[in-house]
Fold Pirin.
Amino acid sequence: MLDHFNIPPGAGFPDHPHRGQETITYLLEGAVDHEDFTGSAGTIYAGDLQFMTAGKGIVHAEMPNQNQRANIGMQLWVDLPEEDKMSEPQYRDLKGSQIPHVDVDGGKVKVIIIKSHSHGTDSLPDFRPTKTEISMLDIEIKPGGKITQKVDDNWNAFAYVLGGDIRFGEGEDKTVIGQYNFVKFKQEGDVVVAEVDENATESGRFILVAGKPLDQTVVQYGPFVLTTQEDALQAVSDYRASKNGFERAWGWSSKIGRTRIL
């Protein structure tokens, strides 16, 4: 699941639980505070990333920093392999200044390498933000620019266009995808080709995500992602009873979840 969020001051996501998935939060504008029942707390700013493994259970709050007017970003939910559904929760933050990038096509294309590799440049060594194998790139193409990006064969892959009009594919299969639209690619093949018309009035920008298929059933019940209906209902029961991973939820409430601006 991919959420392109825009949360003004006074709104946000107060205390809520998760189990069974991981999230990648990539902030484009503003600042977002986070706090959870393990004692973790902090703020990410534009260009920063936060990776969260919910595992067997987490209760947290994600609220816009009250010093910011616009808080815009992307949050990707990544399913956990069934054997890791009940793992310990954890967080990993990454500052925008730490994320490698590469220029392609004579500087007409910029690739921010959140995870994976592009044109001879890799993401941070030994950095495995999620238990599921994924690739995530932020690609900006100036008018007249083109990129041929390798993707692992038989992985699931999609792109979400943040801005401009981007032409995907080659030959007769070329398709123009506009802002705020989503395109899913066939599993066959190992490249994604994208370009922006040289006569375009603005650059194109998209998020390219790919992941190794888990070949498991996905049962989502609100903030819980499991593999069976019974496990999803058990997650609800465990959260309500503060047990089996939710013990620290008993009597806990975040400070930032109560933050509001009138």
About this structure: Helices lie at 229-241. The chain has a mean pLDDT of 92. Residues 99-211 form a domain with the Jelly Rolls fold (CATH 2.60.120.10).
